[in-house]
Amino acid sequence: YRSFVREQAGIRVQHRALPDQWATTFQIEHEKSHESISTEFHQPGGPLTFIPLKDQNQSTVVWCDHKTNIDDIMSGSIDDMEEALSILCDDHLGSMRIKGERFSWPVGAYTVDQLNAGRIVLVGEAAHALPPLGAQGFNATLEDIFVLKNHLHNVVHHWFYIGEPSSLFYYTKKRQLDITTRLNIIWGINRVLLKGDKAIDWMHKGVRLMEYITPARKKIMEKGAHLNRKKAKA
Which of the residues 113, 130, 215, 220 could staple to 137 if both were Cys, CB 3.0 to 4.6 A apart? Predict the structure, then answer.
């Protein structure tokens, strides 16, 4: 994603790419209510995610797979795509109908060398992009906003100069490690998914093991959904 402000500030971007993995996204109408819950299916080729929209019977789909499979899906008919989608999710939301345009792109990721330059601060996709797995890109953006909001509140409260570069560096220091950690974890999981069914089984066993380790489970939940801060449905 291009950012005019980032480019003008001279902040460098570090890219990662998975040349064999692509994603397609589109909106669907479905028979059953999504109940404001985001659902993700792990499959060989990548995650298949249903993201709830305001209408209880509409969702956005993000479907990751090997490039050849995405090419076949995009070149086929809408009916064939709807049938394949229903099979992969085991009719999770009942009958489904694709509405509107479909888009596809190569799956990749990037981070920046620094999150601030002078009085400029980067948040969201100007600062990072993660593979579409576990809504971690969205969660990272929320955390950017949360940390920056709290920091600016403290700066104003203590009568410091809000645009002081040394002050804004705190935001970079606070967020850089979290963003890098999220990227490395999601990148690793995504590569596991690409290795096929056996790798997925082992990943699921690892997740189930965490259910018996309370501190680890709590840490994972806090990282992914910030449940320690507020209760909210996806």
Answer: 130
Query: What DSSP string runs through 173-195?
Result: HHHHHHHHHHHHHHHHHHHHHHT
* Residues in the chain with pLDDT values less than 50: 207-217, 220-221, 223-234
pTM, to two decimals: 0.71
Alpha helices in the chain (DSSP H): 4-9, 67-75, 78-88, 136-157, 165-194, 197-210, 214-225
- Distances in Å between the Cα of 89 and the Cα atoms of 97, 108, 119, 208, 228 are 14, 24, 47, 20, 30
Q: Please write the tens of the pLDDT for every residue from 17-31.
A: 877 889 999 999 999
Scan for tokens 């009958």, then name that residue.
95
Rounded Cα–Cα distance for residues 40 and 51 (Å)? 9
Dig out the tokens for 229 from the structure.
């801060």
